[in-house]
Hints:
Elements: E1 2-8, H1 13-28, E2 35-44, E3 55-63, E4 67-74, H2 77-106
Parallel strand pairs: 1-2
Antiparallel strand pairs: 2-3, 3-4
Helix pairs in contact: 1-2
Amino acid sequence: MEVQIKAKGLPAAKTLRTHAARRIQGALGRFGHVVQSVSVRLSDINGPRGGGADKLCRIVIQMKNRSLVMEELGDDMRRVIDRIAERVQYNVSRQIEKLAAINRKLMPEPALVPIRA
């Protein structure tokens, strides 16, 4: 699983990228067989002078047969990363469960063979 992280307009971008990589890889580690790549964008919407909930984390997860795009907004980038890591883990797990249910429906019923004594 390839994880690409880009930070724009953020002080301490290196430490934030490290934190994001650790949290995202931890959240998606067990799904490595399904997740092909992850792209993370960390940005400060209003710039260094803006206040309030202007820290944005956007994640694009490319799975074998679909993509997930998620965003989280807040005033502290570390908390934003932590929240989106939890959401990512939950949503990827749900997508895998949905695919498994679809595959079970598509599988043919096993033929019943009568037992003769």
